[in-house]
Design a protein that fits this description.
This protein has 288 residues and is α/β, with parallel strands linked by helices. It is 36% helix and 18% strand.
């Protein structure tokens, strides 16, 4: 169990269609089986640790499954970086749910995880009970993507956790202006791992940078994927300072899908941490 977690979870592994060993956390509360499970899908460089506090809260009523996408966290790295794409992640999720005997889930997707949820709406629509999109939509701010790319390319090993906390503070400060030292340390411990030399390195396969860079050079129309979510309840969470999901895009999403609900995380950019009081209240209402 991670030091930042207060709730027990089971660690599990499953095998992807192409033979990779992939990791997930399984939070099972006292009322296991009484409500539709929740599946939490992380951002492009993130992993299951990001959902620890939310999973703790939700596990009182739901079984909560938090996987590490291939190439992140404790999941195996893919020898072919061309596989680091949302359709592959959606297929991995399909195999995970089959392995657990789960037929229907609420999906909470942060950034890339939200795009994977959109792909699921096309590829395996019957699985979705509802979706929460955390600071992601069918149009993505290109200037913000450049900043994310610069951050991903910096693979400098760091000497200790205080240095790591300072590094993520410099990277995340525009998006979390009121972050405390404890916040930065928690983010650092969710971002880095110790290598064989005792240095701290990013907890992801640097080959995902190649695929991300290639994706940035192309234009993808995500609107058809977003509209595929119209069959299920959708809640969109936006960071008030986000340059990934603009207010204008959110307004267009509301116009295109009037039944969608939305909530704003104040004093926060990309993405919301899903610990904000009004965001938690919105998620509770959505899942209910």
């Amino acid at each position: 169990m991670d030091d930042t977690d207060a709730t027990e979870y089971r660690e599990g592994w499953f095998t992807s269609q192409d033979g990779l060993r992939l990791y997930f956390r399984d939070y099972s509360g006292p009322e296991k089986g009484s409500a539709t499970p929740v599946l939490c899908l992380p951002g492009v460089t993130r992993n299951s640790k990001d959902f620890a506090r939310l999973a703790e809260r939700l596990s009182a009523r739901h079984r909560v499954i938090c996987p590490d996408f291939r190439g992140r966290g404790r999941s195996q790295y893919d020898p072919d970086w061309n596989h680091y794409i949302p359709p592959t992640y959606a297929d991995d999720v399909r195999h995970l749910l089959i392995s657990l005997g789960i037929h229907r889930v609420h999906v909470i997707g942060t950034s890339l995880g939200g795009i994977v949820a959109m792909v699921m709406a096309v590829a395996i629509p019957s699985v979705l009970a509802s979706v929460v999109l955390n600071d992601i939509g069918p149009e993505i701010g290109s200037s913000a993507l450049s900043s994310i790319m610069d951050y991903m390319k910096d693979d400098t090993p760091l000497a200790d956790w205080d240095t790591a906390a300072g590094h993520v503070r410099a990277a995340y400060l525009p998006n979390l202006p009121r972050g405390t030292q404890d916040d930065w340390m928690e983010i650092a411990r969710h971002t880095y791992r110790e290598n064989a030399d005792g240095m701290l390195v990013h907890d992801w396969d640097y080959a995902i940078v190649k695929q991300f860079e290639q994706a940035m050079s192309r234009r993808f129309d995500l609107w058809p994927l977003f509209m595929a979510l119209g069959r299920v309840p959708v809640l969109c969470v936006r960071g008030a300072l986000s340059s990934i999901l603009s207010q204008q895009t959110l307004d267009r999403m509301k116009e295109a899908m009037p039944a969608m609900t939305a909530v704003t995380a104040e004093d926060c950019g990309h993405p919301a941490r899903l610990s904000e009081k009004n965001v938690l209240e919105a998620i509770d209402a959505h899942l209910a």
